[in-house]
Amino acid sequence: MDKSLPKVTIMVITYNQEDYVCEALDSILIQDYPNIEVVVADDASKDRTPEILKEYERKFPEIFKIILNKKNLGITGNSNIAFNASTGDFLVGLGGDDAFLPGKISAQVYEFQKDEKVVLCYHPVEIFDSETGEILHISNQSDSEDVSSARDIIEKGGIPGAASVMTRKSACPKEGFDPKIPCVSDWLYFIETALNGKIVKVDGVLGRYRKHSQGTSQKTYELLEESLRVMDRVVEKHPEHKWLESCCRKGKARYLMGEAFRQLEKMDLKTSSELATRASKLNKKSFFRAIALVCYLFFKLPLLAKILIPTLSKFKYTIRRISK
Predict the structure, then answer these.
(1) Are residues 184 and 259 in the same domain?
(2) Structural domain span for residue 306
(3) Which is more confidently placed, 309 or 150?
(4) Are residues 170 and 285 in the same domain?
(5) Taking residues 61-67, what's their average pLDDT?
(6) Residue partners of 97: CB distance under 8 A and separation at least 6
(7) Which of 251, 267, 279, 286 could bridge 154 with an S-S bond, Cβ 3.0-4.6 Å?
């Protein structure tokens, strides 16, 4: 371990991930950056995850710090356990079911060292199916997906794959993750960090984001109102930035429209139409009005929806890019 270099804390958040956590931790161990600490906060797992974590701590005591919660705190509470135990100059999160790719940490630290005004650095990730291993999508492959400011993080619906993000700790919210946002507080955390400086992107895929039935990405409708609440919290916490109110209206519209599309894929035509209508009231651009009309027609003409929606699904990432 070379302590002359800035320290990077990798905050690993785990809960019942015995099938995936070894892959996540091994992806840290293959990194070539020589000054890291790994803080793992386990949220009272009921499977073998705690035993696995203890074994890594036994083998690598100079790197791993394992914290086993006695009771379940939820995603935000557990994230704050890791945040408060972190001592690094730079922080990066990793879900216990995701993975880094080689060279990630070094590449991102380099960007921070080049410019002290940089507070957040991210990179593209592979989004893959847990069951088949198939790569479903690679994020941030077009200018319309890239983010360069807090405004972009809001209006474009966040940064795909939270594990792609490294932050400068001195620029992060002092309290860490907002406890008023129980699950999707990382979105707010990134926005608040970005308000304090510059964002840079590292070109090249340096992480893998797993899609499976237990993942948060499969619970977007369940978390819809909380996600919209993030926009309200941004405005509440930062009244000094007058532009945030209109920006967050656009962010809400973008999120609602994305969820409307997901409900179309599930053939929940009524919910899709309702969400698209809400989005079009927040953002009155012709694109949003047109999509709201299409969703309404599908709701009224389900046979047409059954024919056309499978074709639309093939182009879902293209459609999302157009909406940004």
Answers:
(1) no
(2) 242-322
(3) 150
(4) no
(5) 97
(6) 17, 20, 21, 24, 130, 210, 212, 215
(7) 251
Q: Output the pTM of the full model.
A: 0.92
- Domain tally for the chain? 2
Share of the chain above pLDDT 70, in %: 94
What string of H, E and C letters represents the secondary structure of the chain?
Answer: CCCCCCCEEEEEEECCCCCCHHHHHHHHHCCCCCCEEEEEEECCCCCCHHHHHHHHHHHCCCCEEEEECCCCCHHHHHHHHHHHHCCCCEEEEEECCCEECCCHHHHHHHHHHHCCCEEEEECCCEEEECCCCCEEEECCCCCCCCCCCHHHHHHCCCCCCHHHCEEEHHHCCCCCCCCCCCCCHHHHHHHHHHCCCEEEECCCCCEEEEECCCCHHHCCCCCHHHHHHHHHHHHHHCCCCCCHHHHHHHHHHHHHHHHHHHHHHCCCHHHHHHHHHHHHHHCCCHHHHHHHHHHHHHHHCHHHHHHHHHHHHCCHHHHHHHCC
Do residues 51 and 183 both lie within one domain?
yes
